[in-house]
């Protein structure tokens, strides 16, 4: 894909010169299903590498599911959620990494991202119990909300163990998919593959370049309508050792004239209703981009833009203007520096 005059182009500073593409290398592709969605990997390598990846990538993804899926009754997270309060559970290495990042971003965002939302996610019909067609009773929302709160968790990073002080279950769906992208990318590195684009459910991470020396281009679509004075062109991003994750509010259910987003505000226990449409974050880590995008959706246009600027996040925030049919957009200073 090449940039055109009708696209904005974002090119990040490269942390290092890419390794040379193997002589005669060509782009190969492998894909499959995972976590209720699909995954794909494009890479520069041999047919022998393709056969190896057919084995290794599903194994990496299976580790994420076995540790972090609330839909798997024997996953590490599900077993932790059944523990009584104040009892420690040792964590596998990958889950320890995710919990450390999850709690740090929860602290940074003032709880706009919160990994202890399992009870509310399930109550609103977005968890293992299945979908619902109407909002739950307010008293049930209040009861589940009392069980949430990232401060209830104690993470002992040295011993890699976790405990909680009440019965609120953990839900890592706002960060685990991004981590899975990172884990697949790390698996490629371990196999000596340094030129690749990894994608799971629309979240991506790219490294190196294509055989012709061009980067892995990813287009961020622009809504069809934009507020006056906001560029309507889509944005093309060069994923030079960079990941991208987007959180939106399109999933959910409608009751009468009201849409209830699957993105819940941990501070209220209710779906967000702040005008946010999408939040896209560029970051070296897809795991962190995933969680930060969720936090920006909850914070809303103003507080989200301020938060992203303070934490030097490259982000695009899209939200409804005064007229709900009009979509406005803000980009952060870190992203503006990438625009050519």
Automatic annotation (TrEMBL):
In which residues is Mg(2+) bound?
174, 290, 294
Q: What class of enzyme is it?
A: transferase
Name the record gives this protein: FAD:protein FMN transferase
Query: What is an example of a GO molecular function annotated in this UniProt entry?
Result: transferase activity
Task: Report the family membership.
Answer: Belongs to the ApbE family.
Q: Which Pfam families match?
A: ApbE
Q: Which Gene3D superfamilies match?
A: ApbE-like domains (3.10.520.10)
Species this protein is from: Nitrobacter hamburgensis (strain DSM 10229 / NCIMB 13809 / X14)
Q: How is the cofactor bound?
A: Magnesium. Can also use manganese.
* CC cofactor: Mg(2+); Mn(2+)
């Amino acid at each position: 894909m090449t940039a055109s005059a009708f696209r904005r182009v974002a090119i990040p500073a490269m942390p290092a010169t890419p390794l040379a593409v193997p002589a005669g290398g060509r782009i190969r592709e492998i894909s499959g299903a995972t976590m209720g969605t699909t995954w794909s990997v494009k890479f520069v390598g041999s047919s022998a590498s393709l056969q190896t990846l057919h084995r290794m990538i599903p194994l990496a993804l299976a580790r994420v599911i076995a540790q972090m899926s609330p839909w798997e009754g024997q996953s590490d997270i599900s077993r932790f959620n059944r523990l009584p309060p104040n009892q420690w559970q040792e964590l596998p290495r990958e889950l320890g990494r995710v919990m450390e990042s999850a709690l740090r971003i929860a602290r940074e965002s003032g709880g706009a991202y919160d990994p202890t939302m399992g009870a509310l996610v399930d109550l609103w019909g977005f968890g293992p119990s299945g979908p619902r067609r109407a909002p739950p009773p307010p008293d049930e929302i209040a009861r589940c909300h009392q069980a949430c709160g990232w401060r209830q968790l104690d993470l002992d990073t040295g011993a890699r163990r976790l405990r909680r002080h009440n019965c609120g279950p953990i839900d890592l769906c706002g960060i685990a998919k991004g981590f899975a992208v990172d884990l697949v990318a790390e698996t490629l590195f371990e196999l000596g593959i340094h030129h690749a684009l990894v994608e799971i459910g629309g979240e991506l991470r790219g490294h190196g370049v294509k055989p012709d020396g061009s980067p892995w281009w990813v287009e961020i679509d622009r809504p069809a309508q934009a507020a006056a004075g906001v560029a309507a062109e889509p944005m093309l991003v060069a994923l030079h050792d960079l990941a991208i994750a987007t959180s939106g509010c399109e999933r959910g259910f409608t009751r009468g004239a009201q849409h209830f987003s699957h993105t819940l505000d941990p501070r209220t226990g209710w779906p967000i209703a702040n005008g946010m449409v999408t939040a896209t974050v560029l970051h070296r880590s897809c795991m962190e981009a995933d969680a930060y995008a969720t936090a920006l959706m909850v914070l809303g246009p103003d507080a989200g833009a301020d938060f992203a600027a303070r934490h030097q996040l490259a982000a695009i925030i899209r939200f409804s203007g005064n007229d709900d049919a009009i979509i406005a957009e803000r980009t952060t200073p870190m992203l503006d520096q990438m625009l050519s």
